[in-house]
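Why does this matter for the project? Reviewers at the last site visit asked to see concrete outputs rather than summary tables. In response, this paragraph embeds two records directly. Each consists of the residue sequence and, immediately after it, the corresponding structure tokens. Nothing has been edited or filtered.
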Amino acid sequence: MRLGETLSVTLFGESHGHLVGALLEGTPSGLEIDEERIKERMLVRRPGGHFASKRNEDDTVELLSGVHKGFTTGQPILIQIRNKDARESDYSFIPNHPRPGHQDLLMHLRSGGFADLRGGGSSSARLTAGIVAAAAIVEPLLGDIEIEAHVGAIGSIESARIDQCPGEWANELCEQLRCRDPHVVEAMKMEIEAVRKGRNSIGSRVDVLVKHLPIGLGEPWFDGLEPALGRAYLSIPAARGVAFGQGFQAVQMTGLEHNSPWGGSKEHPIQEGEQPDGSIAGLTSGSDLFAQIAFKPPSSIAHEQTTLDLEDGEKKPLVVKGRHDPVLGPRAVSVARAMTTLVLCDLLLRKRDAL
């Protein structure tokens, strides 16, 4: 449950335990703590609202160490976020009747029956609150780098590319669904309402755009930009696929179509072409980086399912109660943005150390 090398984040807590949080290590001293930025980032991720779980958490961030008089000290920062609206009774059927699509059965067996499985326990997306808070603290390390993210697709409803959409949310519905394409948000809304009415859920995709990257950021091979981001993106609960640049469309392309020739000048080389890769062999090229993250439909649905009952070894009907998201994309936008921030900040500090 640890991400990063020079700058690292270690997660702790359980979905329906007392709290969740993160230990942020490697933060340079002297970073100003912007409480308003932290609140803003947490507000986008928190549950509640028309298109998300009805769990009511205020997600107040407490910084218990590593901060003095509003600035980081360079020591580890302990981030704590208390759970105030946990409902243990919603999960009384676990572990005897594990939910389809969840880790209930796996964690139960792995721990010898001692795992906290309420709401997903330590595997729950609730723990992304610590990720978002940590990223908000170190965001100033990005400098001129800009990160944008939005919902690129919900089910079969697909938005225009993020770099072809308005920079700001066009209206309130766009902001709620975290999609910048005003031409598709109404269709996305109808799709979500239809699956919710059917006591079901729907898959989604988050698109990320990183602009103003310097040339040469990243480490060779396993800590190159795409491998590092890919590991972070795929660790987001329910992520099932990641693509960079042309992604799987590259399968159908020739080298002449895919290659972006170098132009510009000796002092300022640039990649030419319609959609150049933001990273080549793990190192940033100076062009924008485009990534997509696919999320499966939320596994907890109110529709009746048939699954194994461990008590008698037979399959029985199960209706999952509780408060759950019908789609993950809108809330995953903040997590994807935070993961991008943490990975880039770690790589920036590692490059700085190597100079």
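We now turn to the second protein, recorded in exactly the same manner.
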Amino acid sequence: MIELPILNSEGKQVDVLKIDEAVLGGEIRHALLKQAYVVTHGNQRQGSARTKSRGSVEGSTRKLYKQKGTGNARVGASRVPNRKGGGVTFAKTRTREDFRTTLTKKMRRLANRNALLAKLVDNEVKCFDTLAFGEPSTKAFAGILGKVGVDRTCLVAVANGNRNAMLSARNIEGVDVRRIEQLNAFDLLNHRYLVVDRASLASFIDGSCYPATEKKAD
């Protein structure tokens, strides 16, 4: 059983949240996390890389100067691949290359929870009793992060309706904001710390933050 400290806005511990490792996969599954990371990373590729062949490069096709008598090496047109500004020998001309792969819904959800387990084991989760703000304030949010020792990249996960917290955190350097139902293994592994409030974390663990159609995956 993992005991996660619950902090207030001053960075002081006010409670403890007990989390069963079995709910998050029991142990850190490195192969699954790697697979989830690679799938998400590949799905972000646009597949629209293009290069121009010598026939696509703008320029004349005439021979630059006569074959003999100049004392220079013989040359042809200016658009050949071995000249600066020329075309590419084997140009990429496909309309769009698809790099998308998929995970099953159960694998994806397990990978997300297992990435959270890895953060909990490394003491990289900062859980607050609440992240409520009367109005957006970047300075106030940055002050909270400083009080709990967040000095590296940070992922902030909040409930969908907590707009003031989203606006407060989004302009801080090295901080990214996600709704709690968007939390995934790729983002968790790409940030050193996770900052979340108690209610949002509980909804992520028990699956209540997901739409009814998603809950059937469990």
